[in-house]
Amino acid sequence: MAHPNRPSLMSRLFPPEDRPAGRLSSTEDPSSSTLFSAEKAPFGSSSSASFQDESIRRNNLYQACFASFSNTAAQDRLQQDRAVEGDILTPLKKAFAEEAVELHTSTRNKLLEAQQDINSKIFDFETLTSSITSAVDDIYANLSYPTSASLCSSDNFPSATVATHLASAKAQLEEAKKQLCDLQDEWEDNVRLERGLRKELASAEKAPWNADHPRMIELKERIKQLVLDNTQALDEIEDTYKEEVQAERMKIMQAMLD
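Structure (tokenized):
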């Protein structure tokens, strides 16, 4: 049995200010004969429009009720799930936060160490590059400078240019050549003297024995000793000349390499 003072479901779901257009008012009795007659009207009758309006109203009412209850239950369930999830995720959030801070600190320290290492390597590379550049500049300066004007220095001879050393070596070679010519002349004179003495000895040996024979033997021995001494002296002079020439060559080569 309907209660006249109790608001209808339609009125509770849709207050007067929110009521959709074309809906029944709260004063209308849903159990009136007019409503029943409208609902029972067949398709194609004069009350077809009223029947369609009633079908629309019922459909809207169903959707409104379903949406209302569904939204309320879903919101309550969502709030409960969020509360439970919040209680469960709190330690996890804290652990993630601590791990993130630790990871950030470790990464930052490693980046600082890597940056310091890179800066140190860059400084070492700059130092090495500067030294290499200085050495290359010196090499190019030496290459562009005339070799003859290059200054040589050594503990064995005074400092002078390459041209001066070459001129001195040339003068020493000319002097040694002159000495060799003089020694060659002296050698040829000794050879001629030896040949003359040998001829005299040969003629004396063919002559008959006389009192001068001991003197001839003595003279022969003196000649042999003279030849031997001169030969030894010439060998010593030749060895000394070879040593001096080799020493001068080594000095010149060392000066060019320095």
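The helical segments are 9-13, 33-39, 48-144, 162-206, 213-257. The radius of gyration is 67 Å.
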